[in-house]
Amino acid sequence: MYIESNKQIHLLHRPEGMPSADDFSLVSHPVADLREGELLVKNLWMSVDPYMRGRMTDSDSYIEPFGLNSVLSGGAIGEVVESRNPRFPVGGKVSSMNGWREYFTSSGDDLQLLPQTEIAEQAFLSVLGMTGMTAYTGLVNVAELKQGDRVFVSAASGAVGAMVCQIAKLKGCYVAGSVGSDEKARYLLDELGVDAVVNYKTTRDLQKSIADACPEGIDVYFENVGGEHLEAVLNLMNDHGRIAVCGMIGQYNATSAQPGPANLSQIIIRKLKLQGFIVSDYWDGYAAFVDQMMQWIAAGQISWEETVYEGIEQAPDAFIGLFNGQNLGKMLVKLA
């Protein structure tokens, strides 16, 4: 099957500060006929995630930077529309890291065939994908969550944060979180059953507000923001507390070096464990995670929200929206 028009999003410039639409370009490339052993996938959904901002900078990190004037990549769910590979029948749904494009060909080695389930396919980009796995891994493997822990979550209404809140509640913990709007605060309190919420955009004293939300201190902090949040929480951690550092979205668009917390001595005084993690290092536990998450979903104990942009052309706006607080839950782009 020859595809003449295959729209893709390329990185045109490396952003300085907040990314803009001018940093991206929409191009179209044809897709050639398949060779033996290959298959053609039509992307249905793609994910945009904060970590992608780091890949837009040409610097050393845990993953190579995006190339200029070439298609971006990221999590995607697609449908096999033509196949010369017996492992992937036409009509099968697959997950891949070949997002930011409408079609792609593959040998199948970089694809995961989705199981037959009544759960919406895009859930494998959120609750059953990297998002849910990140939340679960950070709490269970890194923070060594225990029943009865007092947990604080920054960016608690985001895709990962909302999963963290729910998993911690299911594990019998007291949970508080920070958000950037009253609407998101109501979501956490009314729908997710979080015990207390701080609106960091309206409070005049972030540390006091977090202290009020966590009157018995904090045993586990799930860090998504960094900066002022981390400094405030370090002063409120209980002895032998654990901090799982997932991300620091508050610094991703900084154009100069940002000052670190002035109170790092609290790590010693409070005998804290502070550990950064990358979920790919724990991917051998994915099957066990899916089994547990499917049980919670079947029991109606986990819910998730999606913010959806329509069309490949909207992918840059969806990505930029992550840094403007435009998403409740998982930010997705629907391609077909």
Describe the structure.
This protein has helices at residues 52-55, 130-142, 159-170, 182-191, 206-213, 228-234, 266-269, 286-298, 315-322, and strands at residues 7-11, 24-28, 39-47, 76-83, 93-96, 103-106, 112-113, 150-153, 174-179, 196-199, 218-223, 237-245, 273-276, 306-310, 330-334. The chain is α/β, with parallel strands linked by helices and 336 residues long. The chain has two domains: 7-125 and 305-334, Quinone Oxidoreductase, Chain A, domain 1 (Alpha-Beta Complex); 130-280, NAD(P)-binding Rossmann-like Domain (Rossmann fold), CATH 3.40.50.720. Strands 3, 4, 5, 6, 7, 14 and 15 form a seven-stranded mixed sheet that branches. The longest helix is centred in the middle third of the chain and has 13 residues, at 130-142.
Question: Keyphrases for this structure?
Answer:
Quinone Oxidoreductase, Chain A, domain 1; Rossmann fold; alpha/beta; 336 residues; 24% strand; seven-stranded mixed beta sheet; 24% helix; six-stranded parallel beta sheet
What is the topology?
Layout: E1 7-11, E2 24-28, E3 39-47, H1 52-55, E4 76-83, E5 93-96, E6 103-106, E7 112-113, H2 130-142, E8 150-153, H3 159-170, E9 174-179, H4 182-191, E10 196-199, H5 206-213, E11 218-223, H6 228-234, E12 237-245, H7 266-269, E13 273-276, H8 286-298, E14 306-310, H9 315-322, E15 330-334
Parallel strand pairs: 8-9, 8-11, 9-10, 11-12, 12-13, 14-15
Antiparallel strand pairs: 1-2, 3-4, 3-6, 3-15, 4-5, 5-7
Helix pairs in contact: 2-3, 5-6
